[in-house]
Specification:
CATH superfamily: Formyl transferase, N-terminal domain
CATH class: Alpha Beta
Distance between the termini: 14 Å
Largest sheet: 7 strands, mixed
CATH topology: Rossmann fold
Number of helices: 6
Order of helices and strands: EHEHEHEHEHEEH
Bound molecules: glycinamide ribonucleotide
Strand content: 15-25%
Number of domains: 1
Shape: globular
Radius of gyration: 16 Å
């Protein structure tokens, strides 16, 4: 069985990328292989994680690709050259255009650190999501893995997991608990599920 080739797009620390790499090592991702990591941030620690795992890396920075069509053409070229079949957004902070997402229907997935449709969409990313959740006073938050379409955080939901908010939570403590209890579990599980679907679709 030829495994589905996965590209992971990152911008920062890459703990979700690490969860994917660890899941591959532990054979929890069996139907896919992480073949490429792309960062839009040259200083992302995620790049070091990929390299120490022997995964090919590419940096496409905003400085080099300020225009969205040029950035997306370069991305597409990287994917075509390597036969990428699944794109996983793991803390990737540059929004993809409708043109790009339309070329990859049900083949781009994203992890979001809240229970969509709460605290999502434009402007809700990273710690800002948890700040907004705490400000609202929600007692439960969580994480969502969903397909990516032209609406930011608007694609069909694949997996969701609720996580309790504790009384003295700060955005940082809540972020960490949601990562540990939800994101790092759901994202590898979703990557395996969609990889399996890709292999099945190849067989017709
Ligand atoms: C994660 O919490 C991820 O869900 C979030 O950024 C963090 C990246 O951490 N993504 C978004 O907010 C996207 N809207 P990581 O680099 O350690 O995986």
């Amino acid at each position: 069985m030829l495994r589905a080739k996965i590209a992971v797009l990152v911008s920062g620390g890459g703990t979700n990328l690490q969860a994917l790499l660890d899941a591959e090592d532990a054979c929890k991702i069996r139907s896919g292989e992480i073949a490429l990591v792309v960062s839009n941030n040259p200083n992302a620690y995620a790049l070091a994680r990929a390299k120490s795992h022997g995964v090919d890396t590419v940096v496409l920075s905003r400085a080099d690709y300020p225009a969205q069509p040029d950035f997306e053409a370069a991305l597409q070229q990287c994917f075509t050259a390597r036969g990428i079949e699944l794109i996983v957004l793991a803390g990737f902070m540059r929004i993809l255009s409708a043109d790009f997402t339309a070329r990859w229907p049900r083949r781009i997935i994203n992890v979001h650190p809240a229970l969509i449709p709460s605290f999502c969409g434009k402007g809700f990313y990273g710690l800002k999501v948890h700040e907004a959740a705490l400000e609202k006073g929600v007692k439960v938050s969580g994480a969502t893995v969903h397909f990516v379409n032209e609406v930011p955080d608007g694609g069909e939901i694949i997996f969701q997991k609720a996580v309790q908010v504790l009384q003295h939570d700060t955005p940082e403590t809540l972020q960490r608990r949601i990562m540990e209890q939800a994101e790092w579990k759901l994202l590898p599980r979703a990557a395996e599920k969609i990889s399996r679907e890709i292999i099945k679709a190849r067989k017709g």
